[in-house]
Structures are given as C-alpha cells and as structure tokens.
Amino acid sequence: MTALLTIIIVLFVAVALWQMVKIFDLAQVGTTNSQIADDHDNKINGYLMIGFLIFIYVITILSFWYLGDLPLMSNAASEHGVEVDNLMIISMVVIFIVQTITQFLLHYFAYKYKGEKGRKALFYADNNTLEFIWTVIPVIVLAGLIIYGLFTWNDIMNIDEDEDPMVIELYAQQFNWKARYSGADNVLGKANVRLIDLDRANILGVDEDDPNAQDDVIVTELHLPVGKPVVFKMRSQDVLHSAYMPHFRAQMNCVPGMVTQFGFTPTITTADMRQNPDMVEKVKDINALRLERKAEIEESGQELVYEFDYLLLCNKICGTSHYNMQMKIIVETQEEFDAWMKEQTTFPNSLN
Ligand SMILES: [Cu+2]
Hints:
alpha+beta; Immunoglobulin-like; five-stranded mixed beta sheet; 9 helices; elongated; binds copper (II) ion; translocase
C-alpha cells in the first residue's frame, strides 16, 4: 500500500513538473507555438466540465446508497442527543442543497461559455441587486444556523444544579479510563497528580485525608442509572485525551492540570438498545446474522438480543495504544445500579 501511494505521488510530481515546463515554453515571447488552445481543445474542456459535474452527482448518489445508513444519526441515547442530531441534520440538508445547485451553476457556465474563436466576453462591471441577493441570503441562513447552534450549545453545556446531577469523575491516562463515583455525599474527594502513590494503589492521586473521599468509588466499568442526570468531571494524568461517548452525543477534552466537565441524561438502557436492531450498529456481522435468523429464534421461544454496548472512547490521538483506550458503559435501571454499586469497594478499602 505504501509503495503504491509513493508511486502515485511520484507520478503526480512528474506531471506537475511537466506542466510547469510547458507553461514556461508558452510564456516565451516571439516564438510561434502550436500549443495554444483552439476551438477543439476548448470544446473538450467544456465537455470535461459537464463530465465532472455528472461524476460528482453520481458519487453523491452512490455514497447515499451505500453509506447513507448512519446509525449514529438516529440512535441518540441522551436527552440532548436529539437536539444535536437535529442541528446536524439541518446543517447537512442546507449544505447538500447549496452544494448541488452551486456545483451545477459552476460547471454548466464553464461549459456554456467555453472559449470560441471570435467570441468576446461582455464587459459587465457590477449589479447591485444581484450582489445584494447573494449576500443577504447566505447572511440570513448562516446567522440562523449559528444562532440555533449557540442556543443548542448553551442548552447542552448549562448544567442545571437543581436537578441534582450525579457527580462522576472520568480519569484518563495512557491508555485506559477510570471512573470515580462521588458516593452518598455526591462530592468528589480532592485529588492531585502529586498524591499518586502506586505502592498504596492510589492510582488517581485521591487525597486520603479528605472526608469527601471516604465514600468515593473507583471503577473500570461505568454504570449509569437511566433517566438520571450525570455530570462528568474529567481529568488527565499525562497528555491530552478526549472523553467521547458517541451514543450520548458527548465529547470533552481531558486536559492535564485542569478539570473539564460535561453533563447529560441517559435515556435508553443497554438492555433496551439490545432489543432494537435499528438502534445498534447493523454493520456488525453478528447482528446481521441474528437479524436473518429473527423468525427462527422467535419461533423457538428465545429472546432476540443484539450485540451492543455503549462505549467511552478516547478521541484524541494520545499515543501508540490510543485506538484501544475505551471503557464499557452500562445504562440500567436505578435498582440494578444500586445493586451494582453496593458490590463496589470504597476508595479507603481499595488501598494497600
Ligand atoms: Cu487517550
């Protein structure tokens, strides 16, 4: 693959050099040159313009046909996720319409007014009405999109303390995640990178003397009760990471030396997601297989369950094992969550 790419690049460089030499030749004064474009050449270029227009339209249709089924556009599992999807879809529809029209105009006029012997370009200085129209329309559309985006952003980032969100720390380090629950007091114990003590297994550098830290719980699998607002406080031990939870439409940088935050309310349990083939990634072969055998499975009285798990991923290239830096997220009922939490070890008990 690398060899092929290298050959292609060398080829393009050669073509570029050849073209540059040709321009140099054409620019020579006083020599007659047979390489000046005539009507025939212009016609070919005109048709190539139309050909390219057809090419991008065909590519667009093929892309929709083969790649248009985006589960990540329809399976938002958080309250604000629906707003993010709406914003995304509206932006994409506007871009699609504008792109389709402007590309047509650009290539069609390049074809229509191709060079012809004897044809002279019309001198046309300006037209205020036209300029007004093509300035005002984009201004209104863009302002609308930006204002809508700002309102959505504020809505998402503004954490309503009255809702009493559950405080959870997400801790990033090369190359794994840890989560720290704040316990019954809903306050995280103080933590600092200087307090990390591997001999005592204090991997997050939590302050052992802080009363708020006594009921903290550190885990490697994130559990969330459905319908309960959560606010994540993100920290990083080493380099820049990014906490990315695609199904919840949530992403926030984890920056060494500071605490960042992102809050959301999960709306669909993992178990419910596993029941719905439209919500889980259809691309996974195993799910396609189960979908094929749906009737057979249901007839035998078994429950049809799809392969699915919410994930927390790292979305900043942070080193060699970045691709594998992930943590499983389980969204469950409050009762299931409480039962799971009861089994976890509190921070003081987890120390050596
Ligand atoms: Cu990372």
